[in-house]
Amino acid sequence: MSKWYRLARPVLFRFDAERVHGLSIDALRRGLVPRIDIPVDDRLRTRVAGISFPNPVGLAAGYDKNAEVPDAALRLGFGFVEVGTLTPRPQEGNPKPRIFRLEKSRAVINRLGFNNEGHAEAVERMAARARKAGIVGVNIGANKDSEDRIADYVEGVNAFESFASYLTINISSPNTPGLRSLQSGDDLDRLLKSVVAARNGFAALMASQRKPVFVKVAPDLSEDQIWEIAEAAKKRAVDGLIVSNTTLSRAEVPGEPLAEEAGGLSGAPLLDRSTYVLAKFRRAVGPDFPLIGVGGIDEAKGAIRKIEAGADLVQLYTGLVYRGPKLPSRILLGMLRYMERHGIDHVSQLRDRRLEEELEAPPPAA
Question: Is the pTM of this model over 0.85?
């Protein structure tokens, strides 16, 4: 943690978490974040799903919900940024307060409920940056009151295909009732078939390159669900899976005063559970299918662990709350030092090195 953020954090934490989040977006928009030295090294460059990422560390969806500051976020050192989750129509989400810090555990519980300004505003912003450098993915979801959620995802593909570096289908938020049911059975198959067909049809119509489609899944999955999702993703030619979203489990935060608040838990306590599920998915999908590891990363050690458990790329968000805006650059430096100590020439050589070790260490029961 940088000295200035160490001093600022106690002051910021006196305020409501959602208000501070808004202030951080405004600070990025205004260029008020101190200059950060970002390591640029070919050993970190990673090619996944046809995209060449300058480094494997990305900003997860949920921070820049409305695509307001993707380029400013990239300047923090992220190799890619994912905006959203975005729904066709604007929605306010769940009643406030809806974000809770669990400071002792370096965790957050949120029950935001896909609060966002809708497609139209974000499409305008994404179109305005269309010719800029930098990899910006768009995470899309369904409106809470939608009569046809699969149609909402198709609408999202059609809206952002022209401007997104990749698209993420978010079916794993615990804060939209019934959404996680799309992770299994006929609903999952119909969803994947529909979004991939929409992506392929758009690319054919516009004579353009197909944009990768990733699917974001929950960490609260059984063995059977993991294999079912893996098989459906391969069958429908999805380009990768993002593992994972927030957890409903509270097993990792015993004794925290706010642990019983409803919503999804993110942050440091999620590292073990999400990494175990990631390793399970790596075993299920095989060596060639792209996986992005998310959950609990707030230092280089966690990012390395994800890659050694099977991730091609990693993402973080809650770690920024506790570690500050220099976190991505510190993670990259830490990864390079680790590689040098172990005689590793490229970050891709880390992948799967401790896959079996992760599979032998299941997390506590939810």
Answer: yes
